UniProtKB/TrEMBL annotation:
Gene3D superfamilies: NAD(P)-binding Rossmann-like Domain. InterPro entries: KR_dom, NAD(P)-bd_dom_sf, Sc_DH/Rdtase_CS, SDR_fam. Pfam families: adh_short (PF00106). CDD domains: SDR_c (cd05233). Residues 6-172 form the Ketoreductase domain. One of its GO terms (cellular component) is membrane. Belongs to the short-chain dehydrogenases/reductases (SDR) family. It comes from Candidatus Gottesmanbacteria bacterium RIFCSPLOWO2_01_FULL_49_10. This is Ketoreductase domain-containing protein. Keywords: Oxidoreductase. One of its GO terms (molecular function) is oxidoreductase activity.
C-alpha cells in the first residue's frame, strides 16, 4: 500500500510508540489525525509536519469524550483509510492494591475505546477499499504475568476482540489486524526510559521505539500482512526476556 495521502487516525500520537509511528507515517506522505491528552505535543507535531495533519485533544478513558470524538470525525471527514489504536496504559498492581477506578480506567482506555472508535468511525472506513484497523496488543495479551493481572486482562480482551473481528470482516472492509508487541523503550507503565536503560545494560530485552515504528510502517504497507504479527525483542537480538 502506498501511504501518500492516505488518511490515518492514530490514538496516542503524543508520546512513545504512537508518536514515533506518526513521525514515520508523516514522512511517508500520509495525512494524520492524532488523538491524545497532551495538546502541546500534538500542536508541536502539526507545526513540525504540516497543516495537512489534524489533532483532537481527548481523554480516551472517558466514554463520553470518545463518542463525541467519533461524531466530530464523522462530520469532518468523508472517509478514512486506517485506524491505529495505539493509546494504552499499563497499571501494574497486585490484586490487593488494585482499585475499581484502576480497573475501569484500564479497560476503558485499552479495550472500550478501540471498540467505540472502530464502531464510531466504521462508516468512514467502509467507504474505502483496503481500509483496516490495526490494534497494538502486547505479549501480556497471551502470556500471564504475576503483578500485572489487570493489564494482562485488558490485552487478552483486546486480542480476543481483534482476532474475532478479523474473522467477522474477512471478506469485507475494514479488515482487523493485531500486533502482539514485546517490551519497548518508552515511559510506559510508570517505569522511566532511564530505569529501563539500566535494565538493558544487564541484558533485559527492550525494542528501541524507532525500530518498532519502522516495523509498524513496514507492516502497514504490506498488503499481505498477517492477522496477528508477534514482535518480541529477544527474537530480534535485543537481549533476553524472562516470564515474571
Ligand atoms: N512500551 C511497551 O513496553 C509496550 C509493549 C507492548 C505493548 N505496548 C502497547 O503500546 C501502546 C503504546 O504504549 P507506549 O509504550 O507508546 O506508551 P507511552 O509512551 O506511555 O504512550 C502512551 C500513549 O497513549 C496515550 N494515552 C494514554 N492514556 C490516554 C488517555 N486516557 N487519553 C488519551 N490518550 C492516552 C498517551 O497520550 P497522552 O498522555 O498525551 O494522553 C500516549 O500518547 C499501548 O497500548 C501499550 O499497551 C507497549
Amino acid at each position: 500500500m502506498d501511504l501518500k495521502q492516505k488518511i490515518i487516525f492514530i490514538t496516542g500520537g503524543s508520546h512513545g510508540i504512537g508518536r514515533a509511528l506518526a513521525e514515520n507515517l508523516a514522512r511517508e506522505g500520509a495525512r494524520l489525525i492524532l488523538v491524545a491528552r497532551s495538546e502541546d505535543r500534538l500542536k508541536e507535531f502539526v507545526t513540525q509536519y504540516g497543516k495537512q495533519h489534524r489533532y483532537y485533544v481527548c481523554d480516551l478513558s472517558d466514554y463520553k469524550q470518545v463518542s463525541k470524538l467519533a461524531e466530530s470525525v464523522q462530520k469532518e471527514y468523508g472517509s478514512l483509510d486506517i485506524l491505529v489504536n495505539v493509546a494504552g496504559i499499563g497499571i501494574y498492581k497486585n490484586l490487593e492494591e488494585t482499585s475499581l477506578s484502576d480497573w475501569q480506567t484500564s479497560f476503558a482506555t485499552n479495550v472500550t475505546t478501540p471498540f467505540l472508535l472502530s464502531q464510531g468511525i466504521l462508516p468512514l472506513l467502509q467507504k474505502t477499499k483496503d481500509s483496516f484497523v490495526l490494534n497494538i496488543g502486547s505479549g501480556a495479551g497471551n502470556i500471564s504475568m504475576r503483578g500485572r493481572s489487570m493489564y494482562c486482562a485488558t490485552k487478552f480482551a483486546l486480542r480476543g476482540w481483534t482476532l474475532s473481528l478479523a474473522e467477522e470482516f474477512k471478506e469485507k472492509f475494514p479488515r482487523f489486524f493485531l500486533i502482539t508487541l514485546g517490551s519497548t523503550l518508552t515511559n510506559f507503565s510508570g517505569k522511566s526510559i532511564e530505569e529501563k536503560k539500566k535494565e538493558m545494560a544487564v541484558g533485559r530485552a527492550y525494542f528501541p521505539v524507532e525500530w518498532v515504528a519502522n516495523k509498524l510502517v513496514e507492516i502497514i504497507k504490506n498488503d499481505n500482512r498477517e492477522t496477528e504479527t508477534t514482535l518480541f525483542p529477544g527474537d530480534y537480538g535485543f537481549g533476553t526476556w524472562k516470564k515474571q
